[in-house]
């Protein structure tokens, strides 16, 4: 009994404040979590809209597509379908990730409604070296993917960036980051295509 | 850390001391991790500074109110608990209202919990002084921290991209101007060099004064 009394005497403030601070965090979380969720959704919608310009709204077309990367690590992604104003499919988009030079790179990849051509990619998150790897954000690199055939892509060191083919010209000084982007495309595209096909979503 | 119970500072004194004489970054060399990590541009530096001011004021206020109840051997635990609670609130707030900044600052917001400036002020000032002095001390230290971060941010953003808060100040060469951006300034090396030069300058000034 004495032990318990001693324990309470020593720690009552800690226990009381833990409850109080826990409550504070719970209230803050309850108040702001809908907004945080909304922010995430808005960001994704905005990026997808940038890829599929005709799309007015997006819905999940295939849930939980399992992807195995080259190191054998499994991950899952949702494939979104963009619907135009008449309700027809305007294209597909999905989140894809892989390791970059410094950290994980997360991309949103867009594909046309027939799954024949890419409509480009947008970077959801990356931590590539400023001034070098961060150029994956820039148009001259990204535009090579717009209209490229939706299949395996290949990275080349020099060539014509304007040509829309499966060959992607690397950013000079950022080969690792360029390679990472191409690898992400290659890891995801066939598996996603297969899943969308089995669901009979390609017109 | 000259603040102690035998020599109680006034509210005004404890505010001013944080700006220069005991500026946490350039005089006490505390909180170097955010100072180096988030000052590649002005906006993240300012956001970090404001978050630290918020956490510092709240934790100093709470610690000051509880100072007579805290058992000495449990004080660090209490300080950390208080700081962690307010940092979590600040983190959630940024995620909800400044999602872009929250993403940019990444782990550095949660890392405010282990920022030595805050625990140092709780220990050196708030646990020995009244509420008003503690709050002014937090405001002074927080502002000193924010000013240093912003100065670094201004120098580094200007030299690394020719912009300030995203607005172009120097005409960049790539867009037909004269200024060639120093990519190194936005990388860690830029942070170390700029901070080093700044500390040297501050030492020169204080030496000249003495």
Walk me through this protein's architecture:
The complex is a heterodimer of chains A (203) and B (210). Chain A starts with a helix and ends in a 5-residue tail after the last helix. In chain A, a hairpin with a 5-residue loop joins β4 (104-111) and β5. Chain A has one domain (53-198). In chain A, 30% of the residues are buried. The model of chain A has no long low-confidence stretch (mean pLDDT 87). By secondary structure, chain A is an alpha+beta fold. Chain A is elongated and about 80 Å long. Chain A has three helices and eight strands, in the order αβββββαβββα. Chain B has 210 residues and is mostly helical. Chain B has a domain at 11-151. Chain B is built from eight helices and two strands, in the order αααααααββα. A two-stranded antiparallel sheet of chain B has the order 1-2. Mean pLDDT of chain B is 90; it is low at 1-5. The A-B interface holds A 10-11, 13-14, 17-18, 21, 24-25, 28-29, 32-33, 35-36, 39-40, 43, 125, 127, 129-132 and B 40, 66, 69-71, 74, 77-78, 81-82, 84-85, 88-89, 92-93, 95-97, 99, 103, 106, 160, 181, 183, 186-187.
Q: Which features characterize this protein?
A:
heterodimer, A: 203 residues, alpha+beta, six-stranded antiparallel sheet, two-stranded parallel ribbon, elongated, B: 210 residues, mainly alpha, two-stranded antiparallel ribbon, 8 helices, globular, disordered N terminus
List the helices and strands and how they pair.
The complex is a heterodimer of chains A (203) and B (210).
Chain A: H1 2-51, E1 57-68, E2 74-83, E3 89-99, E4 104-111, E5 117-125, H2 139-142, E6 146-149, E7 154-156, E8 167-169, H3 175-198
Parallel strand pairs in A: 7-8
Antiparallel strand pairs in A: 1-2, 2-3, 3-4, 4-5, 5-6
Chain B: H1 11-19, H2 32-37, H3 42-66, H4 75-97, H5 99-105, H6 116-126, H7 131-161, E1 163-164, E2 167-168, H8 188-209
Antiparallel strand pairs in B: 1-2
């Amino acid at each position: 009994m004495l032990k318990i009394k001693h324990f309470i005497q020593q720690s009552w403030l800690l226990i009381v404040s833990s409850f109080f601070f826990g409550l504070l965090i719970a209230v803050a979380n309850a108040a702001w979590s809908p907004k945080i969720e909304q922010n995430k959704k808005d960001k994704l919608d905005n990026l997808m809209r940038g890829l599929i310009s005709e799309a007015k709204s997006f819905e999940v077309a295939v849930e939980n597509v399992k992807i195995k990367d080259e190191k054998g690590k499994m991950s899952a992604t949702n494939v979104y379908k963009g619907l135009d104003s008449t309700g027809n499919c305007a294209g597909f988009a999905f989140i894809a990730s892989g390791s970059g030079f410094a950290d994980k790179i997360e991309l949103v990849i867009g594909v046309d409604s027939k799954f024949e051509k890419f409509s480009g990619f947008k970077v959801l998150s990356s931590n590539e070296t400023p001034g070098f790897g961060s150029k994956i954000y820039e148009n001259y690199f990204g535009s090579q993917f717009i209209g490229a055939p939706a299949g395996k892509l290949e990275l080349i060191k020099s060539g014509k960036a304007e040509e829309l083919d499966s060959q992607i010209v690397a950013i000079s000084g950022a080969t690792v980051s360029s390679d990472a982007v191409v690898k992400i495309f290659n890891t995801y595209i066939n598996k996603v295509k297969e899943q969308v096909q089995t669901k009979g979503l390609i017109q | 850390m000259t603040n102690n119970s035998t020599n109680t500072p006034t509210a005004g004194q404890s505010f001013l001391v944080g700006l220069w004489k005991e500026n946490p970054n350039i005089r006490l060399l505390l909180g170097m991790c955010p100072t180096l990590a988030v000052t590649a541009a002005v906006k993240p530096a300012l956001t970090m500074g404001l978050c630290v001011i918020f956490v510092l004021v709240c934790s100093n206020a709470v610690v000051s109110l509880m100072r007579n109840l805290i058992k000495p051997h449990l004080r660090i635990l209490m300080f950390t608990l208080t700081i962690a609670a307010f940092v979590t609130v600040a983190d959630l707030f940024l995620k909800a209202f400044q999602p872009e900044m929250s993403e940019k600052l990444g782990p550095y917001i949660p890392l405010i919990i282990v920022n030595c400036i805050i625990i140092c002020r709780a220990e050196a000032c708030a646990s020995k002084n009244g509420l008003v002095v503690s709050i002014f001390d937090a405001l002074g230290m927080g502002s000193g921290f924010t000013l240093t971060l912003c100065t670094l941010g201004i120098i580094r953003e200007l030299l690394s991209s020719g912009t300030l808060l995203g607005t172009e100040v120097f005409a960049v060469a790539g867009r037909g101007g004269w200024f060639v951006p120093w990519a190194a300034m936005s990388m860690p090396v830029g942070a170390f060099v700029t901070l080093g030069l700044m500390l040297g300058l501050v030492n020169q000034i204080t030496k000249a004064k003495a």
